[in-house]
Write a structure and sequence with these properties.
The complex is a heterotetramer. In chain C, 69% of the residues lie in helices and 5% in strands. Chain C is mainly alpha-helical. The radius of gyration of chain C is 33 Å and the shape is globular. Chain D has nine helices and no strands. Classes of the chains: A mainly alpha, B mainly alpha, C mainly alpha, D mainly alpha.
Chain lengths: 104, 521, 772, 243
């Protein structure tokens, strides 16, 4: 316990991942699901930066990939919020179960 | 009790607890001691305080430089793996310290040896951090208090009034303390329909990021709590977190006006962070570092070496940054989230007491942070406008160091310049009307954003051209620098001149107003 | 000044119109009607013109002091990206060709911009109630940016990028009045025709990329020569097509681009239609930018051309110059007449390039740019003045109403006709440039292969000093150099060219004669155009009364008229003659200087003085005789030569043929396909259906009820069961899907983990070295 | 018999009627037999294929590699350990709070806690720039966007949509299992020993990498951002009022 290494960070990331998945499963609000996705992406980023720090062959690469993931996450959030707003315009709610029907 | 009859049940007088009573007593004591002195010698006290602070800072620098040199560096040099997190120096006993000093040579005089023993706790990083945090927290507290007081004074003068005059004596110097005591003692109301936990926690979301920003903000070459290589981005980031508090406050109030205020804040903040960031990239491109100390030290040497005057793009970027930063800390004319006339104070409509005060602390502290950032990035940081060569002529003696610290660089210069920019913010607030939300967004997306993009491109090309070996480019750069510097000088002297004129003719300017009969004017 | 200084100046000159473009795009509507135009003039071309002047003066000094070659060699190349193993470099190609072209483009375009301000002042610029005024100048600025970028590019890749930008700008500008059908059709036609040519260019570019392994012009030329010496790569004998080596294909491919942009013979159809754009645009396209780009391209890639490719170029140029000149005779639209004359003159330039008259062709490009810009602006003045009347038959006698336009136009006519007094050295424009092309062609046709011919070749033996600036007094310069300057003296076959050009054939004589004949046609149609417009009696009262001149518009005319005089007299020719040595690394350049005194020059001179020395007088005289008294005589001649006239009026039916072959051909193929679909495919379908139906009806009673039904129902029920199981997961709710996929992932992870544990080598780290 | 679910009842009925015409024609006796055969085939396929896949997997997963011995890592400095556990604790706490909070704005606030904690993790990992970017982009941008979305789409702060209890139980089971498996695998893995005293990656190194090795992802990300900007503006645009 007195030695902080790669494993500790990866376990934290795993818990973040599990929490993100759980959020995605148990939320019916579209934005809640989005929050779950952000958690999952963050767990991936923690993994990447941890590998960057602890594995010699991942130097720089991990951080670059993490940067790209952050950019992608921002883009994804912008689009997803746009979709949520459209959903709200069309269905007057952001409950994803309402959006499950195929009929327009 | 009261001689008025009121239709509701009057509240029983609240009996204050011991801490509150202590605070009140302390405040009264302070006022009792300071008031006669301030009333008698306002000018000498002010100037003396400034000089004392300067000398104190200089003495602090000397002492800590000595500590670093004698106590930290020598033992650490033989410790193979010293890292910031390493606790290797935590438990160093005086005996061991003495032994190490003996090993190091022990050429120090008796006074030096005494000093070493007196200062031995200071060697521990954790102790030093504690002291530094305390100082930082004090600074963080004192800045908003006096900026608020100053704002009220400036507002008064602009509106041909005198502002607070009573509390404490000389120009109401204790007004903000009194307000603070009042606000702390006021009832903390939480509306019934509000989202309680969020409502309570929201002010802390605004104030903690500002405090964190102070941690990475250098006030001098060595006066920084943590020197980060990405300090600029870090400060931008934490100031960006500040807005969450405002939004959460607006949302949790469960009040239409508050939600409107919060939405305006979110909209405005997210928009203006982009031009602000791009304007800040201009000095980064010019200097090639995100480290604020590197950026400030690259401008050492005098007025004409300041970044704003070295490069036309940086000059415009400075102005763009200043405008965008006004918007990002919701100062007038961009104070839409708290527009009193439309939204009845917007996001903090429902707040009262201490939590309300926290919002204002955060606002005035972040005003100072953005002003200091502008100073560090564009206006030479802690370097004075005097040419550095004059200082070099003084030599390196102890007195010369003090003199140089006073005149040529040091935190006092940064503070003076930052306070001046804060003053400009206040000045703008009391002279400009608030603009509409569509104008706010128009100004961002269609004016500032393209402008800052062009500035970044231009600055890049400028830097690129400066690396070429073309002879006349240096001539052109010099000419541009001189022109820009002269423009700045004209503004500075014009400002001082107008201020002096106004001060000299202050009675004539306001005509036959009550100012003539009020005390202290 | 160092070479970096020149590069920075040129790069700033390229970027300035780009900045102007963005300013006009963003702030154009706010700048308002005249201001936006002046911003375009000042920033779009004024700044580049100043820079170009500075560079030109400086560069002349460098050439005079002999520093030019060193500066060219020291040019900076920035490695922008690696395309595989081929670096894509950015840089300024710093030589006399660039400097001269840069100055020409900026000078002409500047005055066209100035003219545009006046021109657009009187024109409607609104579409749907919105002003497009700023957009016009934004497009012009972008056009300037593209063309200047094209000129300074050191790499074929960037040349191609700017090339395409030029095409785009021409599309935008030709279709400026896009709400009018004919303008947008013309724009599309120009764009598509250019795409055809660019396809060839792209093929050539790919060959350069794959075979020469570089995109830098200098390196490409060097490798070209190396590959020739080694007989490998593009010169390998197994790579041939129609008997052409791959190098020839590459050269022709690159030339295809020039064919599209410079509107050479099969792809010339877009240029007359491009008159649909505003007149300044026509001037810009015809004089300074678009069509010059093609000639410039050929000049740039001249070192990558084989003799076969050059012969192909000469053939195309010859056909263009002849056929288009003939069409110009019968045009009645003033702008179209000028357009066809442009085509013909471009034919001369390309023909000159094909003959090896590299210097003369570029010289002709410059002189032509000046007087053609002036002619077009003059025609714009006329059209503007005559209330948008373009038919010359309705004009006449305008000299009184617009004297400046009339006489500047006349100077242009003199220049394009090659007017001059032989043997004295007084002449205008084409008199020097076009006749030099003809002289080179004459040499290539008649003197080629004669034993004594090469006696006149100074520095024979392949030395690098074979070609010197023409004003240095060299008589005839015909240099044949191969790759090996270093060992140039090792092979000096007497009386024959060396290296790649030892098999260069003589120019077919009919090509030369066609060019000579066209030299007579040119003065005729130009004089006809001028006379019909300005002289004689007014033929349309309404037009005549409306005619007037605009001050802003005739200042450029006067400036360009002066420029025509100046440019004719060997101002630019030495510059290109200086650029020529760089072009002869692997190619052949011939130049003929009138002041020299050798036998071959005498031959050429004596022939040309007799042959075309007074062609302008003949042409003018014929035109004068026919059109002296109005159009009656012309009408009679037309009736006599009706079939020929019809052929020419219909432009040899090119549009019709293209319509017939390509458009109608496509429709025909589609129709045939439809017929096949209807009668063959559908028939087969119907037949199959019929047979199936009968078979099913026959077998259904026996097989269907028991076996097939049973099987089908069984399968259906299985499917139903499976889908019932699968459907329970298909809730349409995203969170259920996440749940399932997470569960599955977990299970898979567990299984893999289990197997790995079984295998006994659980996920050991791969990068660390094994212990022990 | 195939009509399940409250939503798709009508549709499913119609589909069922169309998919099962044999009912109207009259079911054949052999149908049941074929059905049995179908199921048998499916089961046989699974039985045959799984060992096959497993055999192939074996080939891949069993390279001749010597297992590494575990190297005892040196103990980390105390402050780092303390800070790590504090920050990791707040990260995990924030993430779990996001899971179990019902109110969407409170979720966002807990997400803020998580994001800031993750930024602090990056600081501990000596990735200063990523940490600052995390603060700017996530905490300062994405999160505000999310709250903004909530404000625009929520009618009242107390509106909640809840999934069924069973789903929550399933989710808890699956996610718990996932985390447990992941944690077990991660702790069972022997990682190569960490580098000693790595300096913080400088921004200059990152920038140089972005401009050389990773220039294509960098440019693609830029293009993506532009597309997203246009797309988001398009998605959220106001519908034009018909005249």
């Amino acid at each position: 316990m007195m030695s902080i290494g790669l494993t500790e960070y990866l376990v934290v990331a795993a818990v973040l991942f599990g929490a993100g998945i759980f959020t995605m499963i148990t939320k019916r609000n579209a934005i809640g699901i989005l929050i779950g996705v952000e958690l999952v992406l963050n767990s991936a980023n923690v993994n990447l930066v941890a590998f960057d720090r602890y594995l010699e062959r991942c130097r720089i690469d991990g951080q670059i990939l993490a940067l790209v993931v952050i950019v992608l996450a921002a883009a994804e959030a912008a689009i997803a919020v746009g979709i949520c707003i459209n959903l709200y315009k069309n269905l007057a709610t952001v409950d994803v179960d309402t959006a499950a029907k195929l009929r327009g | 009790m009261s001689q008025f009859s009121v239709p509701w049940q009057p509240k029983q007088p609240y009996s204050y607890g011991a801490p509150a009573r202590a605070v009140i007593a302390l405040a009264r004591l302070t006022a009792d001691i300071a008031t006669p002195l301030l009333r008698r010698f306002p000018g000498p006290i002010l100037i003396g305080a400034i000089v004392t602070v300067c000398l104190g800072v200089w003495a602090h620098a000397l002492v800590f430089g000595y500590v670093d040199q004698r106590l930290l560096t020598q033992p650490v040099a033989d410790a193979a793996a010293f890292s910031y997190f390493s606790p290797s120096t935590w438990g160093l006993s005086p005996t061991l310290l003495h032994a190490r000093l003996e090993m190091a040579g022990g050429q120090g005089a008796a006074l030096a040896g005494l000093l070493q023993y007196l200062l031995w706790p200071v060697q521990f990083q954790i102790v030093r951090d504690g002291i530094a945090l305390g100082a930082l927290f004090g600074l963080f507290n004192i800045i908003p208090v006096y900026v608020i007081w100053w704002e009220r004074k400036v507002a008064g003068r602009i509106q041909s009034r005198v502002g607070p005059m009573r509390v404490g004596g000389w120009h109401g110097w204790a007004q903000s303390f009194a307000d603070g005591i009042k606000l702390v003692l006021k009832e903390d109301l939480v509306p019934k329909e509000a989202d309680g936990p969020l409502f309570r926690i929201a002010p802390y979301f605004t104030i903690i990021p500002t405090l964190v920003a102070f941690m990475a903000l250098p006030l001098g070459a060595t006066y920084v709590f943590r020197e980060l290589d990405v300090a600029l981005v870090f400060i931008l980031g934490v100031l960006g977190v500040e807005v969450v508090g405002v939004i959460v406050a607006g949302w949790a109030s469960n009040n239409k006006w508050s939600v409107y205020g919060a939405m305006r804040e979110a909209c405005q903040m997210v928009s203006y962070e982009i031009p602000m960031g791009m304007a800040l990239l201009v000095p980064v491109v010019c200097v090639g570092s995100l480290n604020l100390r590197t950026i400030a030290e690259s401008q050492a040497g005098g007025w004409f070496d300041w970044l704003a005057f070295s490069n036309p793009f940086a000059f415009v970027a400075f102005i763009s940054y200043f405008i965008a930063s006004l918007a990002s800390c919701k100062r007038a004319p961009f104070d839409l989230p708290e527009a009193e006339s439309e939204l009845v104070a917007g996001f903090h409509t429902e707040y009262s007491g201490f939590r309300w005060a926290l919002f204002f602390f955060a606002e005035y502290a972040s005003m100072f942070v953005i002003a200091a950032l502008a100073v560090i990035l564009f206006l030479g940081g802690w370097n004075s406008p005097l040419p550095g060569s004059w200082g070099d002529a003084l030599g390196d003696g102890l007195a010369a160091q003090g003199f140089k610290g006073l005149l040529f660089s040091g935190p006092i210069w940064l503070m003076l310049k930052s306070i001046f920019l804060v003053y400009v913010q206040i000045w703008l607030r009391w002279t400009l009307p608030r603009i509409r939300i569509d104008q706010v967004l128009y100004a961002c997306v269609q004016v500032l954003l393209p402008l800052t993009m062009l500035l970044l491109l231009g600055a890049t090309l400028w830097v690129w051209a400066s690396t070429s070996d073309v002879g006349w480019w240096a001539v052109l750069t010099t000419i541009v620098t001189i022109i820009l510097g002269l423009i700045g000088l004209v503004f500075a002297f014009g400002f001082v001149g107008i201020a002096a004129y106004g001060f000299y003719h202050r009675r004539r300017l306001v005509g036959n107003l009550v100012i003539d009969v009020l005390p202290g004017s | 000044m160092t070479s970096h200084t020149y590069e920075i100046l040129l790069a700033l000159g390229v970027l300035s119109p780009f900045v102007s473009f963005w300013i006009l795009v963003f702030f154009g509507p706010r700048l308002g009607k005249p201001t936006a135009g002046w911003v375009g003039v000042a920033l779009g071309m004024g700044v580049p013109l100043v820079l170009a002047t500075v560079v030109l003066i400086g560069w002349r000094g460098e050439v005079a002091s002999g520093n030019a070659a060193e500066l060219t060699a020291n040019a900076f190349r920035y490695e922008w990206a690696m395309l595989g193993t081929v670096p894509a470099t950015v840089g300024v190609k710093l030589d006399s060709l660039t400097v001269g072209m840069f100055f020409m483009v900026t000078f002409i375009a500047f005055w066209i911009f100035v003219f545009s301000v006046g021109y657009m002042a009187g024109h409607s610029d609104e579409v749907g109630g919105k002003s497009k005024y700023h957009r016009f100048f934004a497009y012009l600025s972008l056009f300037g940016f593209s063309m200047l970028g094209l000129v300074v590019s050191s790499s074929l890749l960037f040349l191609f990028i700017f090339w395409e930008l030029v095409g785009l700008c021409s599309y935008l500008l030709i279709g400026f009045y896009f709400d009018k059908g004919f303008a947008s059709a013309a724009a599309i036609k120009a764009f598509i025709t250019n795409r055809v040519g660019d396809f060839g260019f792209l093929i050539g570019l790919m060959l350069v990329y794959f075979q020469l392994g570089t995109l830098d012009l200098d390196v490409a030329a060097q490798r070209f020569a190396e590959q020739y010496a080694a007989g490998t790569g593009i010169f390998a004998s197994h790579f041939t097509l129609f008997g052409w080596s791959l190098a020839t294909i590459m050269g022709i491919g690159l030339f295809c681009g020039a064919m599209g942009k410079s509107a050479q013979f099969p792809l010339h159809v877009w240029l007359p239609d491009a008159m649909a754009g505003p007149t300044p645009v026509s001037a810009l396209i015809h004089a300074a930018t678009m069509v010059a780009a093609g000639v410039y391209l050929v000049a740039r890639v001249f070192r990558l051309m084989t003799p076969e490719a050059l012969m192909f170029i000469a053939l195309i140029g010859c056909l263009t110059l002849t056929l288009m000149a003939l069409i110009a005779i019968v045009q009645v639209d003033i702008k179209k007449c000028l357009a066809y004359s442009t085509l013909s003159q471009l034919g001369y330039m390309i023909f000159g390039m094909g003959c090896g008259a590299w210097i003369a062709a570029l010289f002709h490009l410059i002189t032509h740019a000046f007087f053609k810009a002036m002619l077009f602006l003059g025609s714009g003045q006329v059209i503007e003045g005559c209330h948008h009347e373009q038919d010359m038959r309705k004009m006449g006698g305008l000299r009184k109403k617009m004297p400046y336009t009339c006489w500047t136009f006349f100077i242009g006519v003199l220049a394009i006709a090659g007017t001059g007094i032989p043997a004295i050295g007084i002449g205008l424009g084409g008199y020097f440039s076009k006749d030099e092309i003809l002289a080179v062609a004459y040499t290539r046709s008649y003197e080629w292969g004669k034993d004594d011919f090469h006696k006149h070749v100074p520095g024979e033996g392949g030395g690098h000093g074979a070609v010197e600036p023409a004003d240095g007094g060299q008589a005839m310069l015909a240099s044949y150099q191969d790759h090996g300057q270093a060992h140039g003296d090792d092979h000096a076959p007497a009386g024959g060219a060396q290296g790649i050009f030892e098999n260069t054939p003589a120019l077919p004589k009919w090509m030369f004669w066609l060019a000579i004949i066209t030299a007579y046609v040119t003065p005729f149609y130009m004089m006809r155009c001028w006379w019909m417009t300005f002289m004689g009696k007014p033929r349309d009262k309404h037009v005549y009364e409306h005619a007037h001149e605009s001050r802003l518009m005739f200042i450029p005319l006067v400036v360009l008229a002066v420029g025509t005089f100046v440019s004719s007299y060997f101002l630019f020719r030495p510059l290109f003659a200086d650029a020529a040595p760089a072009a002869t690394d692997a190619a052949m350049v011939m130049a003929i200087d009138g002041t020299a005194d050798t036998e071959a020059v005498h031959h050429a001179h004596s022939f040309l003085i007799g042959g075309v020395g007074f062609a302008f007088a003949v042409g003018f005289a014929i035109a004068f005789l026919i059109y002296r008294n109005g159009l009656d005589l012309a009408e009679r001649i037309r009736r006599v030569l009706a079939p020929l006239h019809t052929l020419l009026v219909h432009k040899y039916y090119f549009d019709e043929v293209y319509d017939l072959v390509w458009v109608k051909g496509c429709i025909l193929v589609a129709k045939i396909a439809r017929l096949i679909d209807t009668y063959v495919v559908d028939f087969l379908f119907d037949l199959a259906a019929f047979v199936t139906e009968r078979l099913a009806a026959f077998s259904g009673l026996i097989l269907d009820n028991q076996g097939v039904d049973g099987m089908v129902n069984g399968v259906a029920k299985t499917t139903m069961d499976v889908s019932d199981v699968a459907r329970s997961g298909q809730t349409g709710r995203i969170r259920n899907y996440v749940l399932f996929s997470t569960a599955m992932a977990t299970v898979v992870m567990l299984v893999l983990f289990w197997w790995a544990m079984q295998a006994g080598n659980f996920m050991t780290a791969t990068s660390a070295p094994p212990v022990g | 018999m195939y009509c399940r679910g409250p939503e798709g009842t009508v549709l499913t009925k119609r589909l069922t009627a169309e998919l099962a015409p044999s009912d109207s024609i009259g079911s054949s006796r052999l149908g049941g037999l074929w059905r049995l055969c179908g199921w048998g085939l499916a089961v046989a396929a699974v039985l045959v294929l799984v060992p096959e896949v497993r055999a192939q997997q074996k080939v891949i997963i069993e390279p001749t590699r010597v297992p590494y011995q575990s190297v005892e890592a040196p103990p980390s400095p105390l402050l780092e350990v303390l800070l790590f556990y504090a920050v990791a604790g707040s990260t995990v706490f924030g993430a779990l709070a996001v899971c179990f909070t019902k109110n969407i704005v409170r979720m966002a606030v807990w997400l803020l806690v998580t994001l800031v904690s993750v930024a602090m993790l990056y600081f501990l990992l000596a990735a200063n720039f990523i940490a600052a970017v995390q603060l700017i982009v996530y905490a300062g941008g994405t999160l505000i966007l999310l709250i903004f979305g909530v404000m625009l789409t929520s009618k009242s702060p107390w509106v909640k949509f809840e999934p069924s209890k069973v789903e929550v139980v399933y989710a808890a089971a699956v996610c718990g299992l996932l985390v447990a498996v992941l944690a077990f695998i991660l702790t069972a893995t022997i990682w190569p020993p960490a580098q000693e005293q790595l300096d913080a990656t400088t921004v200059a190194d990152l920038g140089r990498s972005l401009m050389t090795t990773y220039v294509v992802p960098f440019e693609v990300a830029g293009v993506l951002l532009m597309i997203v900007m246009v797309g988001a503006a398009h998605l959220a645009r106001q519908e034009k009022q018909s005249p």
